[in-house]
From TrEMBL:
Keywords assigned by UniProt, alphabetized: DNA-binding, Transcription, Transcription regulation
Protein's recorded name: HxlR family transcriptional regulator
Lineage, broadest ranks: Bacteria, Bacillati, Actinomycetota, Actinomycetes, Pseudonocardiales
InterPro entries: ArsR-like_HTH (IPR011991), HTH_ArsR_DNA-bd_dom (IPR001845), HTH_HxlR (IPR002577), SCP2_sterol-bd_dom_sf (IPR036527), WH-like_DNA-bd_sf (IPR036388), WH_DNA-bd_sf (IPR036390)
Origin superkingdom: Bacteria
Sequence ranges assigned to domain HTH hxlR-type in this UniProt record: 9-104
GO molecular function, one term: DNA binding
PANTHER family associated with the record: TRANSCRIPTIONAL REGULATOR, MARR FAMILY (PTHR33204), TRANSCRIPTIONAL REGULATORY PROTEIN (PTHR33204:SF18)
Organism field: Pseudonocardia asaccharolytica DSM 44247 = NBRC 16224
């Protein structure tokens, strides 16, 4: 149960449900298309499974999420009330992009970055068959240094261990720089020219690789020229 504000204001009543830790991020994942428990977990990798289950049950009881058994799996789907939160999530993302530019080291999560990238692949421009992108983050600790995206015409898999397929193209950079590229703070081509991103693969693949990804939904948000909001 969230905080009780004791106010009739509809903003206060909405926040009694939505201000619990992780709740809006779970809704963000559902808005972005995650439907299964394990998909939701990968979108909020620092959230415990027990807490995720608790938040989902709370959202189901509140009427924002519907639980739909499907064979051996369960789908979690936003209801009409839940879908009405999408413009709120989008507005928060836009506002955060425009006004909060501060990124601490604790905000840089390779799992979350690759999970976001995997659902923004433009299959129409990826070479046919199987394409494997190998990422090496030079500033990450060894367990999180190497990641792979395995792209086929039908799906994209995120791997934190070598999937065993031939690598189509390698990307060596810092985690911070690729996050900045993904957020739209830094241009990919400019980072390559500056030597901040090193690509290893055939010239045609190196040239087209940035177009394989549509970038974050907020990458095109204009940044403000004013001082950014400071986080406590």
């Amino acid at each position: 149960m969230g905080s009780r504000y004791g106010q009739f204001c509809p903003v206060a009543k909405a926040m009694e449900l939505l201000d619990e830790r992780w709740t809006l991020l779970v809704i963000r994942e559902l808005v972005c298309g995650s439907r299964h428990f394990n998909e939701l977990r990968r979108g909020v990798p620092r959230m415990s499974p027990a807490l995720l289950s608790k938040r989902l049950q709370r959202l189901i009881r509140a009427g924002l999420v519907e639980r739909r058994p499907r064979g051996n799996r369960v789908d979690y789907v936003l209801t009409e009330a839940g879908r009405e939160l999408q413009p709120i999530v989008d507005a928060l993302g836009t506002w955060g992009t425009r006004w909060i530019g501060e990124l601490g080291d604790e905000d840089l999560d390779p799992h979350l970055l690759l999970w976001d990238m995997h659902r923004n692949v433009d299959h129409a421009v990826v070479p046919g068959g199987r394409a494997v992108v190998w990422f090496v983050f030079t500033d990450a600790a060894v367990p999180n240094r190497e990641w792979w995206l395995v792209i086929t015409p039908d799906e994209v898999d995120v791997c934190d261990s070598d999937p065993g397929y031939p690598v189509t193209v390698g990307v060596e950079t810092t985690l911070r720089r690729l996050v900045e590229i993904w957020r739209g703070d830094v241009d990919w081509a400019a980072a390559v020219r500056a030597g901040e991103v090193v690509l290893d693969g055939p010239p045609s693949i190196r040239r087209t690789l940035p177009g394989w990804f549509t970038l974050s939904a907020y990458a095109g948000v204009p940044r403000t020229g004013r001082a950014t909001v400071r986080l406590a």
